[in-house]
Amino acid sequence: MNEEVTRSITAFLKTQHQAQTQFLAELVKVPSDNPPGDCQRHAERTAELLEGLGLTVERHPVPQAAVHANGMISATNLVVRHKFGEGPVIALNAHGDVVPPGEGWTKQPLRPR
Questions:
Q1: The pTM is what?
Q2: First to last CA, the chain
Q3: Where are the beta strands (DSSP E) in 4-109?
Q4: What Cα–Cα distance (Å) separates residue 5 from each residue in 1, 9, 35, 48, 92?
Q5: What is the mean pLDDT for each group of 10 consecutive residues in the chain (113 residues)?
């Protein structure tokens, strides 16, 4: 990547830092501990935030039999498609479930700081 492109990306990310931080803080507020694996609310909040950015979000609930077979309560896959311009197509993959917070916290785990 050339230096001009790197500077451009860096400058853009700096202007978006606060919005990115707020977006992630909203996700941290929604419990998605696994176990028990009840991830429906987290997926729905993620979809709402992405739609707030003007993106179209496809929701694909995982069939209950598959969810239960994996020891979970609920799961929904989200798909967002957006063309940013010419060039290669990329796919990003993430998950919303997290390990339970456990004991010994000095701060509340679902309150972003």
A1: 0.85
A2: 34
A3: 57-61, 76-80
A4: 7, 6, 43, 31, 21
A5: 88 94 95 94 97 95 96 95 87 89 88 87
